Amino acid sequence: MSTGATSTPRKRGPEKKIQPGELCQVCNEQATGFNYGALTCNPCKSFFRRTVLENNLTQKCDRGGACYGKFIRRCIDCRLAKCELVGMNADYIRDLRIRSIRRRIQKIPTNGQLMKFSETLDPFQENFLAILEGFWIIYRNKQANIHEPSLDTTGAVQRTAYEVVVNFENKLSTIKQPNPFFQIALDRLHFVKDVINLHASMMLVFLEAIPSIRWHQLQEETKRELITFGTMEIPLIRSGSRSLSGIPPNRGQFEGTGLRDWVIEHMFAIIEDFSIKLHPDSYETALIAALAATSPDRGITSAVDYKILSNIQETILEILRIKLGIDRKQLKVLASFVAFLQKLREYSHNSSEEWWRFISHKKKIFMAQQQEKEVVRTGMDFVAQGRT
Amino acid sequence: MSTGATSTPRKRGPEKKIQPGELCQVCNEQATGFNYGALTCNPCKSFFRRTVLENNLTQKCDRGGACYGKFIRRCIDCRLAKCELVGMNADYIRDLRIRSIRRRIQKIPTNGQLMKFSETLDPFQENFLAILEGFWIIYRNKQANIHEPSLDTTGAVQRTAYEVVVNFENKLSTIKQPNPFFQIALDRLHFVKDVINLHASMMLVFLEAIPSIRWHQLQEETKRELITFGTMEIPLIRSGSRSLSGIPPNRGQFEGTGLRDWVIEHMFAIIEDFSIKLHPDSYETALIAALAATSPDRGITSAVDYKILSNIQETILEILRIKLGIDRKQLKVLASFVAFLQKLREYSHNSSEEWWRFISHKKKIFMAQQQEKEVVRTGMDFVAQGRT
DNA sequence: GAAGAAGGTCACTAGGTCAA
DNA sequence: TTGACCTAGTGACCTTCTTC
Ligand SMILES: [Zn+2]
Ligand SMILES: [Zn+2]
Ligand SMILES: [Zn+2]
Ligand SMILES: [Zn+2]
């Protein structure tokens, strides 16, 4: 078949106009102009867009493909074939929409036993999302050390579950703030530990706050796994999210700390993936973070806990899906989020030993140099308990 | 902008045509619009369609053709005569729409209190799924060489789009069947090429058959990319699927062929992943395969093709999601499918060079040994054209 | 910056469904 | 068989780019 890619240069701009009386090359009615590469009428233009560009259904012609003239409009098969014959071409598309999906979303619940699908969040889901998003904004904007630029939280949380969020803010403010000004070498170790502790503590607050997780019911081991991996994964999401708010990730703070290069490499690849490929909204980010934080696929041994976490994942995924639908985004976006989470899990799985080596090493140096007058680092100590 | 600041309610869409209070020209009841060429009520519209376009039944009037007003509805004879009198006309018919394939996914009665919503596939989606599944069963069960055990296709395809599927079967049967009995060393090369060609040709048939893909509109380069990667990916899904039907994958057929070990390793890891972790049913498998086959994320350079493929992906994902919902499966299952596809893409991306090296090498040996009296291997040659 | 073309909207209607 | 109600394709008319 000839490619037909040699489309004639289209008439554009204030140039030769269409003569009155010129006919549609498809249906022989009055033409209105050049549409998608051929002289056609308005209906045929719309038809072509709908059928080819919006991916509508085709069907066989009843009359063996013999439709012509005005009657060609009644036969999708023949009309489309004629469109292509006269040179209408998908190369002229600028944007595609998916109407079939949009239409289904508009279905309203019927009064029958079996409800048809209605795509809005129910109050529980709304609340869930509000709390997550509120937390996320605070977590994202909070300085992880006083070198970091802070973002203004005011206003941003307005629509969210305010009280809960204020509660977060209070809890987070009690956590020791890492100090990046190194007076002596030992300060650097303090700093690293404090940063990790901060994130681990935030994770604790986050997980306790996720609606319906019933944190205290989970087994100690499960909690430890969640916090350990969450502490590796969530800060990357935070960093990507801050990057989207205009604060680029600071690679320098990891270099020369003794953390292996491939880990740093992997981290920043993920952050870039997040901010460039995904560039999610703030609610999407909050939900992605919640999915990462509650993932059961990291060696949770208790079957009960696994089930609890799976249910939460399901709840979050459902909220995310409906929200995306409301925003007219494609399911593919959800798929890309899931793929990202997969990568994130691979990262934390592969680098957990390295991180642990890194932290232990720092600790050993620390202990050797000083009789550790133990600073309470709730988050980190909690994680550390699980290690031999 | 300040157009006429007067109360112009910015009308969109067409003008309202019918005034409330207009009467049906046939029965004098409230009219609903122009139907088949006359202003009529809904019942008269339905009546006309049924009688003229569907049944053609007639029946003499008891009252000598004197029925009028509302009572005309009781007399087929008079009602039809009046319809024709006021100008209703069979020319207004369009094609019959696609008859929806018998709903095979029936609503499952809810016994629990949790189930609030249930979605069903629309006719287009039903048809799409039926064709895919029908193709898949044939593709899966077909022997790729005469050593392979075949599965009985009879019965399995009964509920699917039968004609389309028969068409597949015919197309597939014209492809050269690889012969695994090696008389001379050269036969082995023939065999390898034929196997690859078989799969590439199957991919071609598959892609042409996917509803709404409009294969011929895609650019040559796009087609080539799809077939190339599909030929690497789809056979793995097939193998996993056969494994679920009780036919274990045959690793031996790759060993000693010169294909590098890591590729074989990767392939069988994916097959195992598919059959053990995913264990999808046959609908799901067909949809997963279609997703893999139509993925735009493999260096499709044409923006239009990318959009078209994305659109199809969206359609398939939506069907998969609804189908999973009907089967009471969690969204997480969808996520795991997506994650699998991601792995599959990584595999094909990483090993495409190796496969190409492998095929070219075989070809070189082949050419060196014999003046290649070229056997037509449509599928493979198509792929090969894109390579330098 | 105006003409022309792409894309969006939505009332309208062909055709299907199903309980009565 | 009927007709209330639904689904989804249509096309008149509109807005939003893009090009000259
Ligand atoms: Zn036309
Ligand atoms: Zn036709
Ligand atoms: Zn009437
Ligand atoms: Zn009568």
TrEMBL record, chains A, B:
<dbReference type="GO" id="GO:0030154">
    <property type="term" value="P:cell differentiation"/>
</dbReference>
<dbReference type="InterPro" id="IPR050234">
    <property type="entry name" value="Nuclear_hormone_rcpt_NR1"/>
</dbReference>
<dbReference type="GO" id="GO:0009755">
    <property type="term" value="P:hormone-mediated signaling pathway"/>
</dbReference>
<dbReference type="InterPro" id="IPR035500">
    <property type="entry name" value="NHR-like_dom_sf"/>
</dbReference>
<dbReference type="GO" id="GO:0008270">
    <property type="term" value="F:zinc ion binding"/>
</dbReference>
<dbReference type="GO" id="GO:0000978">
    <property type="term" value="F:RNA polymerase II cis-regulatory region sequence-specific DNA binding"/>
</dbReference>
<keyword id="KW-0805">Transcription regulation</keyword>
<protein>
    <recommendedName>
        <fullName>Nuclear receptor domain-containing protein</fullName>
    </recommendedName>
</protein>
<dbReference type="Pfam" id="PF00105">
    <property type="entry name" value="zf-C4"/>
</dbReference>
<keyword id="KW-0862">Zinc</keyword>
<keyword id="KW-0238">DNA-binding</keyword>
<dbReference type="GO" id="GO:0004879">
    <property type="term" value="F:nuclear receptor activity"/>
</dbReference>
<dbReference type="GO" id="GO:0000122">
    <property type="term" value="P:negative regulation of transcription by RNA polymerase II"/>
</dbReference>
<keyword id="KW-0479">Metal-binding</keyword>
<keyword id="KW-0539">Nucleus</keyword>
<keyword id="KW-0863">Zinc-finger</keyword>
<feature type="domain" description="Nuclear receptor">
    <location>
        <begin position="21"/>
        <end position="95"/>
    </location>
</feature>
<dbReference type="InterPro" id="IPR013088">
    <property type="entry name" value="Znf_NHR/GATA"/>
</dbReference>
<keyword id="KW-0804">Transcription</keyword>
<dbReference type="GO" id="GO:0045944">
    <property type="term" value="P:positive regulation of transcription by RNA polymerase II"/>
</dbReference>
<dbReference type="InterPro" id="IPR001628">
    <property type="entry name" value="Znf_hrmn_rcpt"/>
</dbReference>
<keyword id="KW-0675">Receptor</keyword>
